[in-house]
Amino acid sequence: MxxxxxxxxxxxxxxxxxxxxxxAVPIIETIHLLAIALAVGTxxxxxxxxxxxxxxxxxxxxxxxxxxxxxxxxxGAAAATGLFLFWSEAAKMxxxxxxxxxxxxxxxxxxxxxxxxxxxxATALPIAPGRERVTAGVSLALWFGVAFGGKAVxxxx
Amino acid sequence: MSQSxxxxxxxxxxxxxGAGIRESTWWYPVLESVHSVGIILVLxxxxxxxxxxxxxxxxxxxxxxxxxxxxxxxxxGFAFQAVSGSLLLASEAARVYHIAYFWIKMGLLLLAALxxxxxxxxxxxxxxxxxxxxxxxxxxxxxxxxxxxxxVGVIGAGRAIGYVx
Lengths: 157, 165
Fold this sequence. Notes:
By secondary structure, chain A is mostly helical. Chain A is about 80% helix and about 0% strand. Chain A has helices at about 1-10, 15-20, 25-50, 60-90, 90-95, 95-115, 115-120, 130-155. Chain B is about 80% helix and about 0% strand. Chain B is elongated and about 55 Å long. Chains A and B meet through helix 3, helix 4 and helix 8 of A and helix 3, helix 4 and helix 6 of B.
């Protein structure tokens, strides 16, 4: 059932056009990387600030909301370009365990971002207590893990 | 000049480090992954300052604070990228020499450095006068916009090297 869907995706004119173009996939991949750098870049600055090695801890709620549009644009562009990349070779991607592992890690990272992470970025304590630092550390580990996972999708299988 | 540069690239290519990475099955993919993900550290810190200079991000924070707090991360990330990038280069230096995208990338990096230098020696010297302004003066905005686009070019050219190689 799912396999038939992937095969159908690969047979769409868009998928065929993406595969046949020499420049489309490299360009989309580059935009995917830039979009990730933008989204994770904003989270990086916020997490470093929580850890006491970025902008001030008190400024975290403020800079989180000021950077939110860029976090959103980055994630939106990364999702859109990611969908195109998947569309260009759906059947091949779906056979790669590393691809599903990356998506699972991405889901975990998002769930963490909108729950535990959000609770920390909403408060303006002068110095972050230990558990907040753990949250910032986990957030960084998750997002860099997703980035490494994405790179591995292109290298493995 | 170009002849001695080619010789230098050939020498780098033939060093034990270059040969070792080339002949190992996993060193190259590991270095390439680390170099690709490491760019987040460089762009993350540089772009955030660029957004502040453009008046498009962290407007509540003084420019000097954003610049000062992020600069160590920019340097750290840059050093990391320089080391991983040099190792990648060493492993394929003889071929990379003939790839135009590599020289385009180096040129864009040089322009980005010149832009940063001009900014720090110029309008940034009077930052006290506009430190808290949500929207910095025109010259600072230009520096931010240039930095942002030059780094897009650096990444684009860098990705292209991998495809041509």
